[in-house]
């Protein structure tokens, strides 16, 4: 008599939640059935959750088409809204919430990327509750169903199939456009995306985001140093992706993918913990 298979669900984590130290807290004793880098369809990384002014001005969130993207761009009749999502007004509205400090480029930002974990049904609530500790406690959240494409490390063009997943979406009382995260928060997102080997074009998009300068004039030297630290990322990811497009995504995946195991091992050593914390190497 065969034992009934345990039910599982996919949960997508992204942005600051996939920074290795945070993932170690979120997953802790949880062993995912499988995991994969993913691109979430019709969803964008946004910064529309207000934080504490001059300390942490904005928190990352997810903008999901058809769920929390109603705004001044939309028409009065539901029948026209679908058409409006192809227009410039909608693109500008999304851009203002997803690309802090960057001039409108005439298109939508790249779709959200992150890491999806296949979890036992009983573990989903535990993981979500731990992830919520890194979000403002006063802001309500909800799990939203999405479609996500799994892909090989660093290259969204090499698909591993689609999955139905849930993603945590914050619902602030007043979602705000034009918010810029702090430098530390920005670097948290950049490092998480880099170490989890998200796609080169997505890394390029994250690289050009402009965090809010919270430093007083006396710390101008630190500000210049921060910008210098982003130069290699700009040269390696943004410029090549703009010039070469998908070709660079494939080349970057080939070059960087081979060094990913060593990079993850180095990260484990620096944290002094066993297991990658952000990639389930045993689940193939």
Tags for this model:
single chain, 284 residues, alpha+beta, Hypothetical upf0131 protein ytfp, five-stranded mixed β-barrel, two-stranded antiparallel sheet, 8 helices, globular
SSE ordering: EHEEEHHEHEEHHHH
Q: How many DSSP E strands?
A: 7
- CATH fold description: Hypothetical upf0131 protein ytfp
Shape descriptor reads globular
CATH superfamily membership, which one?
Gamma-glutamyl cyclotransferase-like
Q: How far do the termini sit from each other?
A: 27 Å
Unreliable runs: 76-81, 270-284
Radius of gyration: 19 Å
Percentage of helical residues?
25-40%
Q: How are the strands ordered across the major sheet?
A: 1-5-2-6-7
What is the number of helices?
8
Q: Give the overall pLDDT as a whole number.
A: 81
Describe the structure.
- The protein is α+β, with helices and mostly antiparallel strands.
- It has one domain (8-271): Hypothetical upf0131 protein ytfp (Roll), CATH 3.10.490.10.
- It has helices at 20-27, 78-84, 88-98, 121-131, 183-195, 200-208, 220-244, 246-271; strands at 8-14, 34-40, 43-52, 56-64, 113-120, 141-152, 155-170.
- The strands form 2 sheets. A 5-stranded mixed barrel has the order 1-5-2-6-7. Strands 3-4 form a two-stranded antiparallel ribbon.
- Helix 1 (20-27) packs across helix 4 (121-131).
- The longest helix is centred in the C-terminal third of the chain and has 26 residues, at 246-271.
- Keywords: Membrane, Transmembrane, Transmembrane helix.
